[in-house]
Design brief:
Elements lengths: L2 H19 L8 E5 L5 H9 L4 E4 L2 H10 L8 E4 L8 H7 L2 E5 L2 H11 L8 E7 L15 H9 L4 E8 L7 H21 L11 E3 L6 H6 L4 E4 L1 H4 L8
Parallel strand pairs: 1-2, 1-8, 2-3, 3-4, 4-5, 5-6, 6-7
Helix pairs in contact: 4-5
Bound molecules: pyridoxal-5'-phosphate.
Length: 241
């Protein structure tokens, strides 16, 4: 069995055990395999092991990979999860199914307009990214501003507001990990309740949180979508593409 296949089995097992511990259904938690820095062949290998949703961070690298795998496109779901600059939004609108990293209205507006140029692709699924640890260097919008941005994104055509995404500061302390994820969940639950009758929030069902080192804490706090890279594909080279 290939290493990627073995790793995927282990990660799925971790997901199941954490769901069990949290009295949740494993089926309610999706697994996104973060393939950034790994070649198309690694994605194919994961696909043969039953993985269909993949996450990418760097637009150019991702678009090349998506094009190399164009024959498999109907079976794959591509999620853009990295920081997004306005000059790269067209490529993302043209090639991805999801974007997790909306943190400015301008980016959402561009994606909305550009997605409209590809009517065959259907709507782009998007999450608003929260800066939950309030670090200067991290992307994401402050908690107090999330609702305003969500309300505006919810109104845009060609986009479907699916939920919230967060990357808390790394910590070895599980209770600290859980505190950060809990803050995101509370924000999510609050927005969902408040907007339960609002059209743009019809599909607001996604909490994108949890990576290789904190997926258990994220599941305990209600994550519905894990973004797992190194635990599946192995350690990444330090060089950022
Ligand atoms: C790289 C990355 C991941 C995966 O991280 P691992 O620690 O390798 O699991 C998840 N989310 C985002 C936004 C990333 O950039």
């Amino acid at each position: 069995m290939s290493q990627i296949t073995t790793n995927l089995m282990l990660v799925r097992r971790r997901l199941e055990l954490a769901a069990l511990a949290a009295k949740r259904e494993p089926e309610d938690i999706q697994l996104l395999a973060v393939s950034k820095t790994f070649p198309a062949i690694a994605v194919e290998e994961a696909m043969h092991a039953g993985q269909t949703a993949f996450g990418e961070n760097y637009v150019q690298e991702a678009v090349e990979k998506i094009q190399q795998l164009v024959k498999l496109r109907p079976w794959l779901e591509w999620h853009f999860i990295g920081p997004l600059q306005s000059n790269k939004t067209r490529d993302v609108a043209e090639h991805f199914d999801w974007v997790h990293s909306i943190d400015r209205l301008k980016i959402a507006e561009r994606l909305s307009a550009q997605r409209g140029e590809f009517p065959d692709l259907g709507e782009l699924q998007v999450c608003v990214q929260i800066n939950v640890s309030e670090e200067e260097s991290k992307s994401g919008i402050a908690l107090e501003e999330v609702e305003t941005l969500c309300d505006a994104v919810a109104k845009l055509p060609n986009l479907v507001l699916r939920g919230l995404m967060a990357i808390p500061a790394p910590s070895d302390d599980v209770s600290q990990q859980r505190r950060a994820f809990a803050a995101v969940r509370e924000c999510f639950v609050g927005l969902k309740a408040k907007h339960s009758n609002d059209l743009g929030y019809d599909f607001f069902d996604t909490l994108s949180m949890g990576m290789s080192d904190d997926m258990e804490a994220a599941i305990a706090e209600g994550s519905t979508m894990l973004r797992v890279g190194s635990a599946i594909f192995g350690k990444r080279d330090k060089i950022k593409i």
